[in-house]
């Protein structure tokens, strides 16, 4: 039986796992959770993941894992035909890990700081502080790409999938300025054109539609 993914399609971390699975040719059984109905807080799901977050993976042997970065590293290590997406080489893997930690500790946090007040209806417009927060993320990423075709190496890795999923969401709020961040813009379009990212685009459209409906003005 294929691994089971508990998920919400609009979630950026969920989309990162979908992209990785697609790149691996791995079929997932997707179980959608309705957070508005608090399905993630039901006892049966809390037994699986006491943090009640998505994505959550249950592998075919019953192994349970959550956090998209951990899930993607696990999937590549178990199901990958090669190590290109998550290299075994110590230094190459360290760079991928650094980029993943940047995504979880900086890029995703900044994006959530901007997104959540809008999704909750607490704000209906963006301010200069919002633009500054995401602008710094874009600037860092543009620097990471100096001398590299992809975000962590000269080949695609799971760091590209995770950061693309975050940036594609941030781009709904604060579009990437190609004059300020030309390397980031070029990278974004390259990742967007990868066949495996197609699986994430329905969820991104749901995300964009919900958020834009709450915004009175976009930058």
Automatic annotation (TrEMBL):
- Note the Pfam families from the entry: GST_C, GST_N
Q: Which family does it belong to?
A: Belongs to the GST superfamily.
Residue stretches making up the GST C-terminal domain: 89-215
Give one GO term, molecular function aspect. Answer: glutathione transferase activity
Q: Which residues form the GST N-terminal domain?
A: 1-83
Among InterPro entries, the record links this protein to:
Glutathione-S-Trfase_C-like, Glutathione-S-Trfase_C_sf, Glutathione_S-Trfase, Glutathione_S-Trfase_N, GST_C, Thioredoxin-like_sf
| Quaternary organization | Homodimer.
- For this entry, the protein name equals Uncharacterized protein
Report the superkingdom from the record: Eukaryota
Q: GO biological process: what's one of them?
A: glutathione metabolic process
Q: Which PANTHER family match?
A: GLUTATHIONE S TRANSFERASE D10, ISOFORM A-RELATED, GLUTATHIONE S TRANSFERASE E13, ISOFORM A-RELATED
